[in-house]
Amino acid sequence: MTPPTTTVWSKTAEAVAAAVGTDTATGLTPEEAARRLATDGPNELPSTPPVPAWRRFLAHFQDPLVYLLIAAILISAAAWVLEGAHGLPVDALVILAVITLNAVLGFVQESKAADAVAALSAMTRAQSTVLRGGNRLLVPSCDLVVGDVLLLGEGDQVGADARLAQAAALRVIESSLTGEADAVSKTAEAVEAQAELAERSSMVYRGTSVAQGTGRAVVTATGADTEMGAIARMLDSVEEEPTPLSKEIAQISKMLGAIVVVIAVVTVATLLLLADVITSHTVIDALLLGVSLAVAAVPEGLPAILSVVLALGVQRMALHKAVVKKLTSVETLGSASVICSDKTGTLTRSEMTIQEVVTLSGDAVVTGTGYVPEGEVSPDADGDGAPDVEELAGDQLAEVTVVLSGGAMASDAELAADEGVWSVIGDPTEGAFLVAERKLGTNGRREGRFERVGEVPFTSERKLMSVIYTDARHEGRVTIISKGAPDVLLERCTQVRRGTGEQVLDEAVRRHFTEAIGAMSGRALRTLGVASRLLTAEETARVTRALAEGGEADFSDLEHSLVLAGVVGIIDPPRPEAADAVAEAHRAGIRVLMITGDHPATAGRIAADLGIAEAGASVLTGRELSAMDDRALGRAVACTNVYARVAPEHKMRIVAALKSQGHTVAMTGDGVNDAPALRQADIGVAMGVTGTQVTKEAATMVLADDNFATIVAAVAEGRRIFDNIRKFLRYLLSSNMGEVMTVFGGVVLAGVIGLSEHATSGVVLPLVATQILWINLVTDSGPALAMGVDPSVEDVMGRSPRRPTDRVIDASMWAGVIMAGAVMGLATLATLDIFLPGGLIEIAGTSVDDLTTARTAAFTTLVLAQLFNTLSSRSQSVSAFSHLFVNRWLWGAIALGVALQVAVVQVPVLQAAFSTAPLDLTHWAVCLVMGSLVLWFDELRKVVRRARG
User: Fold this and answer.
1) Is the CA virtual torsion 909, 914, 915, 917 positive or negative?
2) How far apart (Å, rounded) are the C-alpha atoms in residues 200 and 377?
3) Quick one: pLDDT at residue 762?
4) Mean pLDDT of 364-377
5) pLDDT tens for each residue of 158-186
């Protein structure tokens, strides 16, 4: 069945029912419902098909650095074939093993993150009550079709978009769709066609829930045609962008690839051009040199180390209730310069709380927030909003008791605790009276005493609801209690409660309450009044007759001559930790924006309480945003921190405007209305407890505790991870630079350092390829991983966010990398020269070794130099001797590196595999001194850097 194309909320229920071919009294026949389900498909939101595991695994091979290593494998294998294919192609197999290990690590960690999110997102199968063939049926919500008649009751989840045909005191919580915290009154009356989503009182929408009352509605849209479906379609139009770290690593990979290709091609071509005769051995030597240069230049362990470091960061975040779905998203959090947050449930508790009670005897404040019934009700004689030292007593205590108990009795909500977690079943505003009454400690007085015998339901037109109770202690006494908008209630009151008595509600008293109501509204408090009176004997008899006759009776004419008890001020309070989290974000140079569907005054008040905006700061509404073009919007978002009454498309425009100004944007939210902006943002953060399925799927990170403070902690962790990534990149690149300079310098300076005298044919390399692989894959990996978990020694939240244009490796860092590489290369070649005869450096008693021994000493010098380089690489400006022993993992990695190097030099089996020879103490002493030069040189460079400021 094709959904109606008109604005169904502006049409009568009868017209809508006729348009979809149904009867509101009996619903569709089961046969017709089955036919429509087969034609239209299930009532499910569109979703992207899951990526097969094999494709997710292969995606880890789609990286320029991996392509370069594959090329090195092919060259190494070709050289092995040309040499006669003796034994195993060790070089090619080792590089292949590294590539595969990196892919496995990334795949496993991303799968674990996905499983964690799936566990958070698991939801029970929703069901709906419908009329089919005149019978009430409970059917899976996915089987609903256009034309079904929904029967709605308190606590029900609405399974599809539907036009109300009947509504009795119906109130629906739409916060997941509109961001409105309060339950919204619903009616069967049509509204204007131009009504905004939050103002369509004749409609109920998929994903919302019934807080109070009953209703009957005709399904007008299912699946992708619902409002939730429209939001889901928006997600498909938003393309995910690679994270800043992904972009930078890709650029580094491309740059390294270009450098390696140029150096290798030039070197190989030069060797072939200078060769007297090009033989197979000449080609093999040239290819081996090319492979050696490629292996030396490329940090083969980088992808695996990066995956492990990010995975460890993900695991640490998961321990702190933040589940990251994609590894590289961790770093993006550290780059966030703007956090756009929803209000309800994210910055606030989504738990309506009474904060003030105004009676004739004065003001009272209620301490404590949320549904936990902990706090006090105290007088506030000076009106400063803070409780007085004196306790509530006398007339004021009696008046406040009637207000809170009366409001609690005029309620269908229930307050319950499950394993210490308090919650309200029903309307959150009605729940606020139950909580406040418990804080006052008077809830026990009415237990078993009063019995509800009648009700006048709340409607949006009346803005009032009443209940009628009998009193077991006083036979024949019947009381009506009314609760509603204060201005409406005041018109029905003739007296006001003073203590346990009453007095006339004159103009002075009316002005007292009117001014108090205005003051509370100005503080963005929602106001509700409570009044009551005893029914007369005649009215009591009428109620008794109506009850005896059964059926529903209209008692609305009893809502007169009421006695006003007082007025309360209610608010959805901020989370207690949110203000500190906002302050910490500001200290870190991060803007926090509140983007909500709630009322502007409420948004402004909460934003001021949390420090997001100054008190009285401008609040932009969705209507104002719609009237702005992109240029005007760009100017507005640069100076406005609070947005209210916004629709999903407004959120997307705000995020897009911020990104166009160079910001890295994080968007938090829990409702369906947040999902498109979460996908549009650089990183979307969904709430794991209150978040909808659509939101969790759109997000890149899910908060298991729905705590805004967890986001700020995740930002700090992201910054620490980024700092550590820079540390091990500095270490790996400078170490590889040392290897490149050693190999390239050894070829160019072979005649100077005495290396060419040992050539039997072709070119003699200062290090063989397997030795370079040993350095890259064994010696380098441990320290690099240890630096990836290095504790923060600086205040990471005390600096501004990294701009998207800032490079992971800037010019200053490249200069340090090149200088450290040059020192390591020169020290290695100098060691080779020291132990080879016929070179530049001739030392009696040392320059007498064969090529294998001298090469082993050079190999050992380079390994030790890189281990010393781990200490230097922990900071670009701070001395290596500062916070020297804070990272026990680093010292463990250094010790392991030394032990492995001793083994590869002294153990016969490893000597054969890596072309090494045993070294004596003299050799080891020279290697140690020459290897340490990089540390002392870098310390000198840092001294000069600090001296220059």
Assistant:
1) negative
2) 38
3) 59
4) 91
5) 889 999 999 888 888 887 677 666 778 89
The Cα 165–Cα 153 span in angstroms is 14
Angle at 339 between CA 334 and CA 343, to 5 degrees: 140
With a CB cutoff of 8 Å and minimum separation 6, the contacts of 464 are: 456, 458, 482, 483, 484, 485, 488, 489, 492, 559
| DSSP H helical ranges for 592-707 | 600-610, 622-626, 630-637, 648-660, 675-680, 693-698
Predicted pLDDT at 124 = 36
Distance CA 167, CA 292 (A): 79
Q: Write down the residue that tokens 């180390």 correspond to.
A: 305
Closest CA to 458 of 497, 424, 489: 489
Taking a C-beta distance cutoff of 8 angstroms, is the pair 271, 763 a contact? yes
> How does strand 362-366 pair with strand 377-379?
antiparallel
User: Which of 792, 927, 747, 783 is closest to 846 using CA atoms?
Assistant: 927
Residue 590 has pLDDT above 70, yes or no: yes
Burial class from Cβ neighbours inside 10 Å (0-12, 13-18, 19+) for residue 946 reads exposed
487 is catalytic: no
Task: State residue 4's pLDDT score.
Answer: 66
The sheet carrying 338-341 orders its strands as 322-324, 701-703, 683-687, 665-669, 338-341, 591-595, 642-644, 620-621
Query: And the tokens for 389?
Result: 């030292």
**Model confidence over 640-693: pLDDT tens digits?**
999 988 877 788 899 999 999 989 999 887 766 677 778 788 888 888 776 665
Q: How far apart (Å, rounded) are the C-alpha atoms in residues 191 and 756?
A: 93
Residue 878 CA to residue 945 CA, distance in Å, equals 10
Catalytic residue among 182, 225, 342, 572: 342
Those residues whose C-beta lies under 8 Å from the C-beta of residue 363, and which sit 6 or more positions away, are 356, 357, 379, 380, 381, 383, 516
* β-bridge mates for residue 840, sequence order: none
Query: pTM to 2 decimals?
Result: 0.68
In tens, the pLDDT along 45-70 reads: 776 677 788 887 887 777 666 776 67
What is the H or E stretch that residue 487 is in? helix 486-491
